[in-house]
User: Fold these one by one.
Assistant:
Number 1:
Amino acid sequence: MALKTRTIGGNEVRIPDPQPGEVAVISRYGKERAMLMHPSDFNRLSQFEWLLAEVSQLEPVSLSEDAVRAHREADTPGEPITDPALLAEIFG
Amino acid sequence: MPPLGHCYWAVAPYSPRPPFRLYGEGMAPKQVASPELFVDAARKGMSEFVVLTPVKARPVLVITPVLPEYDEVLALRLLRLEKLSSDAVRQEVRDGGHPALFHMRPERFPGLPVENAAIVTSLLRLPVEALDRRESLGALDENELRVIHERVARVHGLKLDVLIFERAQALVAKAQRKS
């Protein structure tokens, strides 16, 4: 799933200067609230997400008429044997 | 409304297993202990019989789109959480700790009177006509459906590596053509 981005003006928040390869974890009361990363890392992560989504996108299979017919025929009962005499002969 | 991801009441069969209860006209069902006699008869050209198979009207979770050529879906049976052995196990299921039991969050399934999990190992192939689609009992979101698909693939040991590798190769080739 693609990451969504939200742009906040640099004047609205005070942030540490993120370095490539480093994530700044912003915590509050012992809990992780946000993570700050360098744009190049974020772009790499986004590309990876995109790549993963693309790779896992399955091509639909087109079923041939023969395959459709085979499935239908295999799944449609014919004339089952229900004659008690014949059943006794087969199954004892 | 497409049934994918929705929960509906359905008429779901149990898988026939030995002893098979053989139907014959005007006779009491005859028990056949194993498949061999059926196979022997099939080799002589007599392959179709009627075996009495119980069905149950039950809610199921549809996990695939309708296969248009056949009007069929794959669906999972459900387990009421109250049937699990303890509160601790119920909580584990809610927390995703049991890969074969997918917790169905009650707020997403208001039509189910109690809390349920989808049984990932209970894959059913059902004709759409076997679903009562008058009312959806609730639906998964896209991420939950992804998790179920992943678990179905894992629990059944589906080998997807070649598929993923070929997709990756195609993407690499596409990227190389662009550059």
Number 2:
Amino acid sequence: MSFDISEAGREVFLGFGTPAILLFYALAAVAIAVFLYGFWRRFAKYRTGASASRLSLSGVRRAVIDISSQRTIGKRDPYIGVAHFFVFWGFIVLLIATTIIAIDEDLIGLILDKPQWQFWNGAFYVAYSLLVDIFGIGFVVGLVMLAYRRRTKPFRLSYDRVDSVSSDRRGYSLDDRMFLAILLFLGISGFLLEGFRIAATDFPSFEWVSIAGWLVATLFSGLGEAGNDTARLVTWWIHAGAALAFVAYIPYSKAMHMVVDVADLVFTDKDSARSLPPVMDSSAPGYQDLSSFTWKELVDFDACTKCGKCHELCPARLSGAPLSPRDLILDLREYADARAGLAMWYPATEPRYPQADEIAGTVIGTDTLWACTTCMACQEVCPVGIEHVPMIVELRRRLVDVGEVEPGLQKAFQSLARGGNSFGKSAKQRARWTKQLDFTIKDIREQPAEYLWFVGDNAAFDPRAAEVSRTVATILHGAGIDFGILYEAERNSGNDVRRAGEEGLFDMLRQQNKEAFAAAEFSRIFTTDPHSLNTLRNEYELEEPVSHYTEIFVELIESGRLPLTHMEGKATYHDPCYLGRYSEEYDAPRRLIEATGLELVEMGRNRENSLCCGAGGGRIWMDDSGLEERPSENRIREAVALGDDVRFFVVSCPKDMVMYTDATKTTGHEDRLAVVDIAQLIERALDSEGVLVG
Amino acid sequence: MDIGVLLRAVPDPVEELELNDDETDLDRDYLGYVLNEFDEHALEEALLLKEDTDGSVTAYALGTADEVEQMLFTAIAKGADKAVKVGDGLGALDAHAQADLFVGALGEHDLILCGVQASDEIDGQVAMLVSAKLGHPHVSVVVGTSPGADTLTITKEYWAGITASYEVSLPAVLGIQAARQAPRYVAVSRIRQAQESGALTETDADPPSSSSGITITAVRIPETGAGAEMIDGDEEAAADRIIELLAAAGVGGAA
Amino acid sequence: MSGAILVVTEHLAGSFTDATFELLALGRELATDTGTELEAAVVGSDVSDMAGSLGAPDRVLVIDDPALESFNPVGHADAVSALVADREPSIVLVPYTSTGMDMASHIAIRSDLPLVSYCQSIDPADGLSATCQLYAGKVEADVTIDGDRAVFAVLAGAASAANGRGDGSPDIEQIANPAGSGGGTVFTELAEPEAGDVDITSEEVLVVVGRGIESEDNIAEAVELAEALGGVVAASRPIVDQGWLPKTRQVGKSGLTVAPKVYLALGVSGAPEHVEGMREASTIIAVNTDPQAPIFGVAHYGWVGDLFDLLPELTDRLE
């Protein structure tokens, strides 16, 4: 097929009289005004937020990649990734097309009145038309895919609450469907219009590039010239009307996510849970009322698209606790909107406690706040950069300040303030675990050493974890590593104290530890406890590097200082939250397991997607008896389902040792699955036989 | 209602106790002290009464240990209006001396609360010694209070959950076994603020006027906790021994 | 020794408590050792008959006052204090109980006598001395007493209650209440624990079952033993998790923290989470088939063996 490309172009208001054109512009003006008003109201709401410095070049760069690749949306769900990619890029290309027309027609043609400058013609017109149609088709296909997913009623899209609060969320579903329907309608009516236009202009040869339109035109070619014209005019008004309605609808609906989520991805801080914000005003720690939330957090509330990824994998939600990160954000959004007098287009869900100033314990229940394990799975999976964990911690800080502390947690705090450990033990007993060793660990307060081993509470006081500590000590001692410990001068690192909201106590513990560090001579720190690892690395502002013992073991094995014999059997590995998601160390433990010769069989939820054991963020100190199924039990069942030949559940965190030993018992799998620390595997691989006795 | 609360520092129960060289006392050189747990309940009950009656609370503690100031700051942070540290560097005192010093330092109060007992009160309970010295009405083993017009309704626990209620006219002294609710938590940051509040005053301690009339001649650490005493023999021997142990503990058919 | 040994009795709802009989047993030993008389003070309303039922003392001093029908912290303390001031006994034995705590200090201060608290034994030979428990039983202390008279607040278990029942018929001496009737403190009502499940934190005897109990049906045997001991059954977490006992019976980290007088652990391994909730128990007796079970690390007494062999033996002996 050939055509004269110089003739290519289109007349936007083909066959329109001046009144019709004026009517269109009037309607467009109204739609834009409604949009701007809604947008301004939202923006004004964000401006009431507390200040936060969030703009960075790296953030922008990351956001550009995230958004253009849509990788955060497709994470572990390629179907949605592809569908949303189609919709997103289709929308962008169509939006650009509309923008081009606006510039070409309205700005250059109408306002500047320089027809000779108009460029929406010729080769550019043809090329872009082709692009628009290809992406337009993708747009419609993507929307259909999304609509189909919604039809299958996946769990994550159910808006049923996990707490006992009743709230009517039908508006949310209505909004979801409306949003999809409008977009789908715009896409399809656009193709129809294109087809009628092509037919009305008598099939100009260059228009074949408008694949879909050409097809429509061919289908409807039987209408005849008059019929075609009528159809085109009607479709034009319907399409334009729908488009303008959509513009007006954006800031009052889920469609706002197109704007807000771009901002959220630009401004999100991936490290905000790793290194929690300090308390600004120690006379009023934590988030008391809405004005405490930063503008970024107010944006977070609106950014949520209710995709439900966090809701689906949250270990608290999974165990029957009254926390769903999604509901947390939605409750805060409803409250913030009610306070700001903002409304969505659909009947609002009943805003909870609109008159309350206090948020912790009212808008968000205390049980909900205490349920969080700070595992960061929600934040990791959130496609739009919402930061749940710091918000929860800020609200917990408030609870702690007003003395509303979960009883188990209160006991732990008191023990920690008293003896620096959560076990209620005297500080003098901290190094008691070393007494059963047949060598003496250096007292680093007296003798310098290359490594300071920060032992941590569980690894020192829990008998099972202390057993592992002795194994680690023996292996490192045997490999000639120069290390020492602080003996009774060590205190709990405070990682979980801080995450439980007791900032003053955290400050105290950190200060005590740093004083002890200052009095010792060493060049590196290591710990077996991923929780301590996180806070030492990210919240202690230390000059010395901090590593996890698995990283040191890998170095030793690779340098040949730990010769291992080959073991046989299958093992699965559990990524601890604070080693995996927090410290992004997934490989060292796996390399160690492989080095022993064991075959590693992964659980479905591994690496970034690992399931929390339920102990983090202070949960290990709180009552977990109200849970339907402890996260650790859920995890053990997952491991057991790998098959009878997987006999080892390998851990690399003292808390995991405690939690999973317990969970194998309560699930009745203790004979079936052995919970072993990586150090224990290494120890056995160092033995002469090299064959594991299951 | 204006309430005075008596707080005592006692050796931290989680510490392993060691004896001094001549075995007449604990080795107190490195001993950590904590607030007596019953006194913590007394403070809680005082704070609850303060809230009930829009009253005020003054916490008193004797300067027997370094940790005392921290205890008083904690009391302020929890809601005590004033805190008084009586004397300084007093070292361990017997209950009679403690009662004398408290009585000497006490201001006018409608009610005085103190923990029902402390683990070191070998010569009597401070709470009741104070009441005897002041001549105020008293009730011990109190597990709840509720304010009336000029009186206080209190609940005393007898044993095994059996309780009795009393109307007590004020001023009175109560030995608190347990507050109506678990002692509240106070954030460390609030304790730090209390340190700067200026609500803590220090007074000198007058020398105690009475003597307990008893002298500790020797102390020792009983052989428990060093591992269980294992019972040898079959189930009949075990049953016999266990019955004996039960009787010694004052329970079972033998008691 | 000049004065008598005076036991301050304790009674509720028409019967003397075990603590009273323990003190009478102890008092009888002291009276025999020192060649003095044993007297018992009974304060209450219409208590003469009850007073006459005491078999151990040589004499019962009865203060019958309708105003003191129920225990009155002030009234009883005043009445006994006046009695002691008047009759000058050499040794006054007060139970270290809820009522005793209200009286001991007042008696001592009023008569200017030394008071020995947490007392577990008394030695009248060669001057008056005693042994006491301090720091929640972590330390034992020997004390000597200035002079030859003192008030002792005696811990439960200092003597066997059975030895304090006696079969004599003491003289009954009626004494008009020499003091007031508890001015300032008025008894209003007595309350029994509410029906419903027991509060294991306030029980003195707990028979605690762990995994070793094996099945739900076997719990009945433990219940039988607990009842014979006047206690209740509690459990470690696995048992409650199985739904064999309600949550209110769970001891440990996620359950309740208990500190009973006697903690009889049957088939409880003693995981740290469990031990956390029971290590303050006064007497811990553990039974487990595994000699390495950590429960033996915290127990005061242990027996390695099958709890199902032991249970019937114990229950038999108690019935």
